[in-house]
Design goal:
heterodimer, A: Cytochrome Bc1 Complex, Chain D, domain 2, two-stranded antiparallel sheet, 3% strand, B: 471 residues, alpha+beta, Immunoglobulin-like, four-stranded antiparallel sheet, 41% helix, 18% strand, elongated, binds iron/sulfur cluster
């Protein structure tokens, strides 16, 4: 409420707002002109904005995801699509060459190789790192992809096959094996004996006799006569320094008695063939890839 | 406030300054400085400097996309920005030194703000006439004359601004190529935005803000006082001689009065609009124009020049005692500045003269730290970067010392061998390296990577580690 009569402050000669606190009066100093102009321009601008861009939420929503449409036809979703299309277009320069080339061509072409590694690396982080770790170093039960020990083979074709169809996976072509639970087959002493044999074999020590017999009769079929594994059957190498689960004797005994088995899902159908090929080259490059 | 009727003003409106034309020594120096500096600014990008076929031949070039900066024989890679720090320190300390000796010569003659403002004032004067005419025009109504004169002035300002921004972009692009692009109106967006930004800033700073930049925006204007002392040359009005000031008629005696005839010539020519007779002020950019103006007046009334002149406080004090004091160049302060300048300068010079043409950087893999191999040995992975700063392709031999039985394998496209790594001219070679070895005694074993050229001479080394067990 403005006072009837203008109240002029004595000292400054400026009109007051009529408000007074403990005798202190507030001067009616208007906002600077430039500020006012900017304020008005902003308001006008905002109104234009409402029509030009999607701005107001509506109950039914005739815009892309509800709300007014805006005459410009711009939406964040469209912008995202455009940006994605731009990336795809940029990749296209390499993509067709990559798809047409075989593995050895790619591995000998600097550009295609870099393309594969870049794509493989990011696909690995998205899909594989959950089990194998971001660096592909795995963990107990999850194979380390950096080393030179491959249960199902480490050539580029082997790796592609594993990626495509999985191991004990849900694909018709998946490779499958299962180690029997020897707790039901062998008596405890035989299990102890064969565990001793495996430990000695890996360490390169003298081999216990009883264990050797048990191994020959029960294990050699899958793990090989020399315990160095049979890749066609997916029988792991027991004579090396790498263990999938653990390297102490207790863990070996429990693995013989009641083995655990991991599952590698089939990626065919989940990832594009091109991504699977990129992943193949990436995993092969981690250090253990075989010729 | 005794006068209650006058409203209290908390905001003083800026009075526009209309500097009057002046002739004289310092004006001449300023013209020469302006032409020289603007000449350098506009023409320098077109200077060529041969660096062989793999590097640009522009003498001064900041190549952002390629991340290189060139200055004649100096070439800076992103890894070497510390040179830039050094150069900035040298520039700052030189400024301190010069300021402590001669006052704000930078402000008065060389600062872009001063040079462009001076140029803009010159345009203003050519179109609208000298001080009195400009003031009249400024106050007058919007007549046809005022409109065309203002329009012309501002158009010329904008053109100068555009040329300023236009020259700027040449420092970041190959100048002849860009010039051709500009002629064909086929200019990249980044260039256009830079030109627009610099056109506007030149137009605003030199056309409107002018002395306010020095008064309110420039940090140097403020901290210069820390470099002043009693022996610093400042532009000063000789109060002892000038006062008591007053109008003077030809033939009157000078007895019992000062030499200042209160003609305000010094005030009228001042580009920052102050009266130097009030003493040294923060606003004074030491342009020397008031000296010229005053000397001119002194000549006319047959008195010796130098009522306003470059002077030091010490000289002034000694003069009162009747002693003529020389300028003190060697003082503790200048000694320190000289010292810092010498030290930093020699460090940079040493760095530039001994700049490594090759650099080796090794980054040990963090994930995984190490890889257990089936035969019991352990493998570590490394990212290798070799910088070849020469203008020719080179070949290197890389090896690891300090670990027994180590085997090196390179991983990459095609067949790469550690004893023949090719790094192209002016570029960085990236390599993946695997080092396998029997487990050393220590979990963390110190090793050294050695880079040799094809003759076998050691070029660079890099200390790294070989890790074989979880820490
Ligand atoms: S005060 Fe700052 S902007 Fe003004 S002339 Fe000096 S250095 Fe330049
Ligand atoms: S007082 Fe004199 S030296 Fe200082 S800015 Fe003004 S004209 Fe230039």
């Amino acid at each position: 409420m403005r006072p009837e009569k203008k109240d002029i402050d004595e000292l400054s000669g400026i009109e007051t707002t009529g408000h007074s606190w403990d005798g202190i009066k507030e001067l009616n100093t208007p906002s600077p002109r430039w500020w006012l102009i900017i304020f008005i321009v902003s308001c006008v601008w905002a109104v234009g904005y409402w029509f030009y861009y999607p701005a107001w939420p509506t109950l039914t929503g005739n815009g892309e995801r509800g709300g007014t449409e805006g005459t410009a036809g711009w939406t964040q979703y469209k912008q995202l699509e455009e940006q994605q299309a731009e990336i795809v277009a940029r990749k296209a320069a390499y993509q067709s060459r990559f798809d047409a080339a075989d593995f050895s061509t790619i591995q000998n072409d600097e550009e295609l190789y870099a393309f594969a590694i870049a794509g493989g690396k990011s696909a690995f982080k998205d899909n594989c790192a959950t089990c194998h770790g971001t660096g592909g170093a795995g963990g107990p039960g999850y194979p380390n992809l950096n080393d030179d020990d491959w249960i199902w083979g480490g050539t580029i074709e082997d790796i592609q096959q594993t990626l495509q169809y999985g191991i004990r996976g849900n694909h018709d072509e998946t490779r499958f094996n299962e180690m029997p639970a020897y707790a039901d087959i062998l008596d405890a002493e035989d299990i102890e004996a064969v565990a001793d044999y495996v430990v000695a074999k890996a360490a390169g020590n003298a081999l216990p006799e009883r264990g050797a017999v048990v191994f020959e009769e029960n294990c050699a079929a899958c793990h090989g006569e020399d315990a160095k594994g049979l890749r066609e059957l997916g029988g792991p190498n027991l004579a090396d320094a790498i263990w999938l689960y653990a390297d102490d004797r207790n863990a070996i005994v429990s693995q013989i008695r009641k083995p655990k088995h991991g599952i590698m899902p089939a990626w065919e159908g989940r990832l594009s063939p091109s991504t699977i090929r990129q992943l193949t080259i990436y995993v092969h490059s981690l250090g253990g890839g075989e010729k | 406030m005794s006068d209650t009727a006058a409203p209290l003003k908390l905001f003083a409106k800026k009075e526009r300054v209309f500097p009057k034309r002046v002739w004289g020594t310092f004006r001449k120096i300023k013209w020469v400085a302006m032409v020289t500096l603007l000449g350098i600014y506009y023409l320098a990008p077109f200077l060529r400097w041969d660096r062989g076929e793999f590097a640009p031949d522009q003498a001064i070039l900041i190549d952002m996309p390629a991340r290189r900066a060139y200055f004649f024989f100096i070439e800076i890679w992103p890894q070497e920005v510390y040179y830039l720090t050094g150069i900035l320190i040298v520039a700052a300390v030189s400024l301190f030194l010069v300021t402590s000796l001669f006052g704000r010569v930078w402000c008065g003659y060389a600062c872009p703000q001063t040079v462009w403002t001076d140029l803009f004032v010159w345009v203003e004067r050519i179109v609208q006439g000298d001080r009195a005419k400009r003031m009249k025009l400024h106050k007058s109504k919007w007549t046809f004359e005022k409109i065309w004169k203002m329009a012309l002035t501002h158009s010329i300002w904008l053109v100068i601004g555009m040329l300023t921004g236009g020259a700027w972009v040449f420092y970041f692009n190959d100048a002849p190529t860009l010039l051709e692009q500009i002629i064909h109106l086929d200019v990249p967006m980044s260039v256009i935005s830079w030109v627009i930004a610099l056109t506007l800033s030149t137009y605003i700073m030199a056309g409107f803000a002018r002395e306010q930049v020095c008064e309110y925006m420039c940090p140097y204007a403020r901290f210069q006082s820390a470099m002043f002392d009693k022996d610093t040359l400042i532009i000063s009005y000789d109060e002892d001689r000038g006062e008591k000031r007053g109008k003077h008629k030809k033939g009157e005696s000078w007895e019992g009065r000062g030499h200042c005839i209160d003609c305000t010539a010094c005030v009228q020519v001042c580009p920052v609009g102050i009266d130097i007779r009030d003493g040294l002020q923060m606003d004074c950019i030491a342009c020397g124009l008031c000296i010229d103006a005053c000397d001119d007046i002194m000549d006319k009334i047959d008195l010796p020049r130098g009522l306003i002149k470059y002077d030091t406080t010490t000289q002034l004090e000694k003069r009162r005692e009747g002693i003529h004091e020389k300028l003190q160049i060697f003082r503790t302060r200048t000694f320190y500045y000289f010292g810092i300048l010498a030290v930093v300068g020699s460090v940079i010079l040493y760095g530039l003269l001994n700049r490594a043409e090759t650099e080796l950087h090794v980054l040990h893999d963090r994930n995984p730290l190490f890889v257990q191999l089936s035969d019991g040995t352990v493998r570590n992975g490394y990212d290798i970067k070799i910088l070849n700063k020469t203008h020719a392709d080179r070949h290197f031999i890389l090896s690891a010392a300090g670990i027994d039985g180590a085997k090196i394998r390179m991983q990459g496209a095609g067949k790469i061998e550690a004893d023949d790594l090719t790094v192209f001219a002016d570029s960085v070679g990236h390599f993946r390296l695997f080092l396998s070895a029997p487990k050393p005694a220590a979990k963390r074993h110190e090793i050294v990577f050695e880079l040799r050229d094809t003759s076998g001479a050691l070029v660079e080394t890099y200390d790294s580690v070989f890790i074989s067990e979880k820490p």
